[in-house]
UniProtKB/TrEMBL annotation:
<keyword id="KW-0812">Transmembrane</keyword>
<keyword id="KW-1133">Transmembrane helix</keyword>
<keyword id="KW-0472">Membrane</keyword>
<protein>
    <submittedName>
        <fullName>Transporter</fullName>
    </submittedName>
</protein>
<feature type="transmembrane region" description="Helical">
    <location>
        <begin position="74"/>
        <end position="93"/>
    </location>
</feature>
<feature type="transmembrane region" description="Helical">
    <location>
        <begin position="40"/>
        <end position="62"/>
    </location>
</feature>
<dbReference type="Pfam" id="PF04143">
    <property type="entry name" value="Sulf_transp"/>
</dbReference>
<feature type="transmembrane region" description="Helical">
    <location>
        <begin position="146"/>
        <end position="166"/>
    </location>
</feature>
<feature type="transmembrane region" description="Helical">
    <location>
        <begin position="118"/>
        <end position="140"/>
    </location>
</feature>
<dbReference type="InterPro" id="IPR007272">
    <property type="entry name" value="Sulf_transp_TsuA/YedE"/>
</dbReference>
């Protein structure tokens, strides 16, 4: 008996769905198919998010350096606020059994801790400290005209690809 569910648009001989079913990120993936232009809502939210990043100075290299040098509370306040909002949001979703906008149940699954998360966190933190950019604000930095950040963006994409390529050989 097959334990994975095959996506609606799976091609014969395509086994991507079997690998994707192992990833936590795909557990709550919607099975609904929408026209391509539905994605504009995500672009609008992304632009709004970028504006908030710029106005809150979250994308400022100087603010990020202040954080890593323990010279300012600004970034810790932003990150701490995001953590508190996330905790409250998850609590509300669980307490009131909130569903997605399409009526699908939201499920939370525990993630097992492993030493690879420590290595990944150290590499991520080192890159963040050196470049003054983490993945979220990269696009906002490029959008403000800091075109040198395109090098960082391409490096992040290359790092993601490299991780995917070597994933099975890395300590998890």
């Amino acid at each position: 008996m097959k334990t994975t569910t095959e996506p609606i648009n799976a091609q014969p001989g395509n086994t991507d769905f079997e690998v994707r079913s192992l990833d936590t990120i795909c557990i709550n993936e919607s099975r609904k198919q929408h026209p391509w232009w539905y994605n504009f809502k995500y672009m609008a939210v992304g632009v709004l998010f970028g504006v908030v990043f710029v106005k809150a100075e979250v994308i400022s290299w100087f603010r990020i350096q202040e954080m890593f040098r323990l010279q300012s509370f600004h970034m810790y306040g932003v990150i701490g606020t995001a953590v508190v909002v996330g905790i409250i949001s998850v609590w509300l979703i669980k307490k009131f059994n909130i569903k997605t906008i399409h009526g699908e149940k939201i499920e939370f699954h525990p993630k097992k801790f492993n030493k690879g998360q420590i290595y990944g966190g150290l590499i991520f933190g080192l890159g963040w400290a050196l470049t003054g950019a983490c993945p979220g604000p990269l696009f906002a930095q490029v959008g403000t005209g800091a075109l040198v950040v395109i090098v960082v963006l391409l490096s992040a994409i290359a790092g993601t690809w490299t991780y995917g390529y070597f994933r099975e050989k890395l300590p998890h």
